[in-house]
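Action item from last week, closing it out:
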Amino acid sequence: EKEHQSLEEAESHLKDAVELRQDYIEALVNLAAVVDVLGKEKEALNYCDHALELNSENAKAWLRKGIILLRLREDRQARECFEKALSYERKNGEINYYAGLALILHGGARKDYEKSLELFDKALSLGCDNVGIWGHKVLSLAMAGHPQSEIIECYKEALRKYPESPFYWINLA
C-alpha cells in the first residue's frame, strides 16, 4: 500500500514536470516507467511515444517501450524496440539483457536461444546487474542444447554473484 502511494506521488510529480516542460524526455520516460508499474500500460506507451516524437534516437525511450510491450506479450514489437535502442546505444547492459530476453521469454527457436546467449554475455560484460540474467542464461544454455557441465558452471557463477538467491541454490541442487 505504501509503495503504491509512493508511486502515485511520483506519478504526480513527474506529470507536473512534464506539464512545465513538455520536451522533458527523461521525465516522460520515467513517467512511463511509473505508470507502467501502476498497471497503466497504454498510458505508459503513450508517454514513450511522446518521448520518441521528441527524439526518435532516445535509447531509453525505446528500451522502456520494449519492456512494456514485452510484458504485454507483443514480442515482435518489443524486439523491434530493443533493436532500435541498441542501434543508438550498443554499450548498455540493460538493453542487451532485454533484447536477449525478448528472444526467449515466450518461447523461441534454437537459434534465438543462441543469439540470446550472445546478448546476455554482452550485457554481463557491460556490467548488467539484473539477478534474472543468470536464470535466463541458464534457460538459453539448456534450450540451445549446451552440455550440462556448462549449465552447472553458469549456476555456480550466478551463486558467486548472488549467494543469497534461493532460486540458484535450489536449481543447482
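Closing note: The chain has a mean pLDDT of 93.
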